[in-house]
Structures are given as C-alpha cells and as structure tokens.
Design a protein that fits this description.
- The protein has a single domain, classed as Porin (Beta Barrel), CATH 2.40.160.10.
- Helices cover 7% and strands 59% of the residues.
- The chain contains three helices and 17 strands.
- It has a 16-stranded antiparallel β-barrel.
- Strand 2 (72-80) and strand 3 (85-96) form a beta hairpin.
C-alpha cells in the first residue's frame, strides 16, 4: 500500500524536497507489490541581461549575473492503483523570492475508461501550447526556454485543479488527440513588480492535435473569468479567452515550429507569435527564433509592439544531457504586465539577454 506524503505545496524548502525523493526511492525499492516508476530532470545555468529592469518578471531575468532564473530540479513518479487506474505526480524545486520552494506541477489520478478514452482528476497541466507537457524540462527542447512572447501569454501560469478527458484515435497513420477540461486556477504570479493571487472561475477549454512521424498540429482554447489584485487599482475581475494554434515539423536534420496565440479580455487583447527553424549537425544543433507580441490601446499607450531575435546552439553530450547557449536581442516587455501597469516614462525596452545552461534527465 502506498503511503502518501502530505505537502504544503509552496512552503517546503529544498531540503524537504530531497527528503521526499529519498523516501520515495526507498519505498519503490522495498515494495515489490506496488512499484513506483521514478524519473526526473535538472537544468541550471547562467543568465545575464544588459539592463537592470526585470523585463521578463516570471523568469527573474535582470542585469546582474543570475544563476537561478533557469535552475529547476524535477521529480516525476507514477504507480498503478489498479489495472486501469494510475497515480502520477511531478514535483519541481525552483527559486522564488530568493529561496527554493517545492511545487506540484501535476498531481492526479487517471483512469482508462476505454481503449481510447482516459479520464483525469487532480492538479493538471494546461494543454495550451505545443510544449505544454514538457515545460521546464530543458532536455526536451532546443531553446534555453520556450519563446516567452507566447509562453507568458497566461502570466506564466500553466496548471489548474480540475478534471479532464483525453480521447486518442489512430486514423490512416495520423494520431488524433482530443482533450477537454474543466477546473480552476489558484496561483501566485508577479504583476507590476508585485506578487498577487490569481483566481479563475468557470474555466473550461480543450485542445485538438494531429500527430504524424514528421508533423504535429495543435489548436487550443481556454475561457474563464479571472480575478486578481493590482497594487494601484485593487481587485480586478475580467473575462479572458485564449486561443493558440501551433505547428511543428521534423524532416530529419531540418525542423522547426510556429505558434500563434491571442489572449482577449475585458482590459484588452494581447497577441503573440514565434517562428523557429533549426538544422542538426549530429550532436550540434543551431536554432534561430523570431518572436513578436503586441497589444491594443491600454494604460494610456496607443499600443505596444515587441519583437526579438534569438540565436541558440545546443550540444548533446549524451542522449540524456546537453549544453545550450542562447543570445536574445529585441524589444522586450512582459505584455501581460502592460495590462496592469504602464512602463515608467522614458523606459527603453531594448534588451540583450545571454544564457548558458546544462540540462539532463534521469
């Protein structure tokens, strides 16, 4: 029988995370009747921006050399509860407010109702983007971090508490996946330089994907009513709808991806997109990415248009480890933050960000 460890998700220090990992490893090796599958990932590196402002608030990127913005330690585990049911969890230790905290990115029970239909309940990952399922797993993609113009569209929030259904069907060599979900987000995010509680009501949505050996196409939508606190305004309630369309391809050595999204709400629309192309030379893979975002007239601004060009280089040491070097240059302001707080007068949004990371999975 599995002994569940109760977590106060955001209050445990890094030492508690290590203790939990050791306990789980001991249990999995000592309990043959209820084996636990354990894996995980780690990323760490150096990030440096040429300006003092925090341009990308949720990623702590600022002028001083930063060793924490891209540092994550993840633990994934799962076990069968019955022939059709499984328990799965992903715990991540990362820096927040100058201390490591442990968060459950997902923590759910799934049940295989039929051969094609799976039901899930608990803490789940929002399936808005092509890389939603592997966010923060640096070994799983070529960038140091997925393009933030798009992947910050929901204020960096990527999980919810609720239920979902996933239907899968193979048809003429194409894997079709349809997912629908219903739930609520209760999270703490950074807006206008301050932490605030984000709550949603009546949140529902879904995604539809078509997957082949060479291409993946996904479209998704989320609708909700969101409430939050803004220091200069107070409590704000707004309707929000997010639509995203994405396509990735892999033709041997050549590949790329494109995603486009829009977040429409009571306080204005935010549009974001990126285009990426790479070529693989065995272990060495250069990638070039163009990202852009823009907003409607909000907070006294006629509109905001940002864009960036990112040059990246990944070197695979082994199948499970890699180094990544990345240089981003462009006009970068967190478009979500613009909805709540205008930039100070004379603010210059041109920035260059240098990043070097080491990544592995186990």
């Amino acid at each position: 029988m599995i002994k569940l460890i109760t977590l106060k998700i955001k209050k445990h220090p890094f030492s508690t995370f290590v203790f939990i990992a050791c306990q789980l490893c001991f249990h999995s090796s000592s309990s043959i009747a209820d084996p636990i599958e354990i894996g995980g990932f780690f990323s760490s590196g150096i990030t440096h921006a040429n300006k003092e402002k925090t341009f990308l608030r949720n990623h702590q990127i600022e002028k001083k050399t930063n060793y924490l913005a891209d540092t994550f330690f993840g633990l994934q585990l799962s076990t069968m509860l019955s022939k059709e049911s499984r328990f799965s969890a992903q715990l991540i230790a990362r820096d927040k407010s100058n201390s490591f905290e442990v968060e459950a990115q997902w923590l759910f029970v799934s049940h295989q109702l039929t051969h094609n239909l799976e039901l899930r309940a608990g803490r789940l990952r929002l399936p808005n983007f092509l890389h939603s399922e592997t966010l923060m797993v640096g070994q799983s993609y070529l960038w140091v971090r997925p393009p933030l113009e798009l992947y910050s569209l929901f204020a960096g929030t990527n999980r919810y508490n609720g239920v979902s259904s996933i239907f899968k069907q193979n048809l003429m060599g194409i894997s079709i996946e349809a997912e629908s979900y219903l739930g609520q987000i209760k999270d703490t995010i950074t807006l206008a330089g301050s932490s605030t509680d984000l709550n949603t009501e009546k949140m529902f949505g879904g995604q539809l994907s078509f997957i082949t050996d060479y291409f993946t196409f996904r479209m998704s939508q989320t609708d909700t009513e969101v409430s939050y606190q803004v220091p200069s305004i107070g409590s704000v309630i707004s309707d929000l709808s997010i639509q995203v369309v994405g396509l990735s391809f892999n033709l041997g050595n050549v590949g790329g991806s494109w995603e486009w999204g829009i977040g429409g709400g009571t306080r204005g629309d935010i549009r974001a997109r990126y285009y990426a192309l790479y070529y693989s030379f065995d272990r060495l893979t250069p990638i070039i990415t163009y990202g852009a975002n823009d907003t409607d007239s909000i907070n006294g601004l006629d509109s905001y248009e940002g864009n960036s060009l990112t040059l990246g280089l990944r070197y695979d040491l082994t199948e499970i480890s890699s180094f990544k070097l990345q240089v981003l240059k462009g006009a970068m302001l967190d478009p979500v933050a613009l909805v709540f707080s205008p930039p100070v007068a004379g603010f210059d949004d041109d920035v260059t960000v240098y990043s070097l990371t080491f990544n592995f999975i186990y």
